[in-house]
Design brief:
The protein is of the alpha/beta class. It has 7 helices and 15 strands. The protein folds into 2 domains: 6-128, Rossmann fold, CATH 3.40.50; 133-239, OB fold (Dihydrolipoamide Acetyltransferase, E2P). It has helices spanning 15-25, 40-50, 66-73, 91-96, 109-128, 174-181, 228-239, and strands at 6-11, 31-37, 54-58, 80-85, 101-104, 132-137, 140-145, 151-155, 158-163, 166-170, 186-190, 193-196, 200-205, 211-215, 220-223. It is elongated and about 70 Å long.
């Protein structure tokens, strides 16, 4: 699995602690540190910008602590979280927050290696499982398989995911969501919409010469002039 690369974000208000995680991770080339944060506000911004696979998260940080980061971001939108702390009294709360692991500083090499071993299994299993998106519904959280989502449209600061005749709101911008789903067969139809290319059944020219994607669900999504060539090429490549 040495050719696999998982991205890591390290969040701790102590520079020595951040260096310590980097040094321990150096023995595991499968993991690459893509950013460091000193407080909770930086963590929230970096999660959006970097979309890491793993977050080493200090609990006690200025202004916004580790638990508040998860509350604001929501557990469903968090990467695998390994808590870092100098105290052990937060362990129960950490696992209630769905943490992958809980490390008490200073961390020994053996303890860190055990965490990494479990992380590699979790991330490897996750890559093998069907990809999906967590959404909240009145009945609780639900996973929408990407292969069943027909199209996605912007809804202010949210995204509306259409699956059949139903829609689900996700508190994530369309731009952020595009980075997550582009590798899974979704293409921009226009500035406010993404379409799963495999679900396109036909491309029709409208009366005004505009292009419309007709989906298997029956939905019709207009294609902007700017996106027409790229979108048509994506559909042709899928059907060849």
């Amino acid at each position: 699995m040495a050719d696999v690369q998982w991205s890591v974000l390290v969040a701790d208000d102590e520079p020595a602690a951040r260096r310590g995680v980097r040094q321990l991770l150096a023995a595991f080339p499968e993991f690459t540190v893509v950013g460091e944060c000193r407080d909770g506000r930086e963590v929230l911004a970096s999660l959006d910008a970097l979309n890491p696979d793993v977050l080493f998260l200090d609990i006690q940080m200025p202004e916004i602590d580790g638990f508040e980061v998860i509350r604001r971001r929501t557990p469903e939108r968090m990467p695998a979280v390994v808590f870092l702390t100098a105290y052990d009294q937060f362990a129960v709360r950490a696992f209630e927050a769905d943490a992958h692991d809980y490390l008490v500083k200073p961390v020994s090499e053996a303890r860190f290696a055990a965490t990494i071993k479990r992380l590699m299994k979790r991330l490897g299993d996750g890559a093998a499982r069907e990809q999906g998106i967590f959404v909240s519904t009145p009945r609780g959280s639900r996973v929408l398989p990407l292969r069943e989502i027909d199209w996605i449209e912007a809804a202010d600061n949210y995204a509306r995911l259409w699956m059949g005749g139903r829609s689900f709101l996700l508190r994530e911008s369309l731009g952020q969501l595009e980075r997550r789903v582009a590798a899974h067969g979704f293409a921009r139809a226009h500035r406010q919409a993404l379409v799963r290319v495999a679900g396109v059944r036909a491309l029709h020219a409208g009366e005004a010469g505009d292009l419309v994607a007709v989906l298997a669900s029956g939905a019709k999504v207009p294609i902007s002039r700017r996106r027409r060539a790229a979108f048509s090429a994506a559909v042709r490549a899928r059907t060849c």
